[in-house]
Amino acid sequence: MTVIPSGDWADVFPGPRIPDVLLYVSETWDWLQQTYSQAVAFTQGETALTDNLCEALEDTERRRSSRMDCDFQPETWVLQRQPDGKVTRVARADIRVILGAPGTPHLVMEFKKLDGSADSHWRYCFDGLNRFVEGKYAVDHPYGVMCGFTCADLNDQATALAAYIGQEEYARRLACLPDATGKITVAPSLIDPASSRFDTNHARRGVGAEEPIILLHTLLHCPQPPAMLTSDNC
């Protein structure tokens, strides 16, 4: 007998599935680092890194062996219809995770390179995270994922990134909602303490999504080739 999912299930990527997805992403990235280290080194561009990762995630044999019943779509456009009927491309999601068949719940993952500098933190926040807040990504969904490719120490980078987002001005611009204790960044993550370094919660008033969105922040280590290492870049 075929069970037809409820309307709510078809609208929302189930939170309990997110740890499965992020673990699969992490394990696949580790395989890429071990197998094709030069192709996924920090010197590669963001698009090259995300495309390389997405191809490996979508590998049929790997998905089956990991019992991952999701599709992973690279560089998918987000389309919006305007009041006059015209349709515009508002943003391009790095990786869209589709649960089951097309049209069922999806999870948007946005990727940025982080070298430990304030400039890379700014791009992570205002050329990445803000797309969720502005409704360009995941407008009808309660969860999203920000992922940093970093050549820095993972713990140090997570601490620095959380401090950057938590600054009063940036937290205001990113519509951050503090938790019950007043924290802007919540660690350990309430959704996925194993893979997410911390969570943030953001209001999205005025963008067609009245409910806040919870973003999970995760990091993937992306070493520099030895010849490229200097004191200034990881």
Describe the structure.
This protein has seven helices and six strands; from the N terminus they run H-H-H-H-E-E-E-H-E-H-H-E-E. The chain is α/β, with parallel strands linked by helices and 234 residues long. Strands 1-2-3-4-6-5 form a six-stranded mixed beta sheet, with helices on both faces. Strand 3, helix 5 and strand 4 form a beta-alpha-beta unit. Helix 2 crosses helix 3. The longest helix has 18 residues. The N terminus is likely disordered.
Protein structure class: alpha/beta
Any idea what the radius of gyration is? 18 Å
Q: Report the major sheet.
A: 6 strands, mixed
Q: Strands of the biggest beta sheet: in what spatial order?
A: 1-2-3-4-6-5
Content of β-strand: 15-25%
Morphology call = globular
Helicity level, as a percent range? 25-40%
Cα-to-Cα separation, first versus last residue: 55 Å
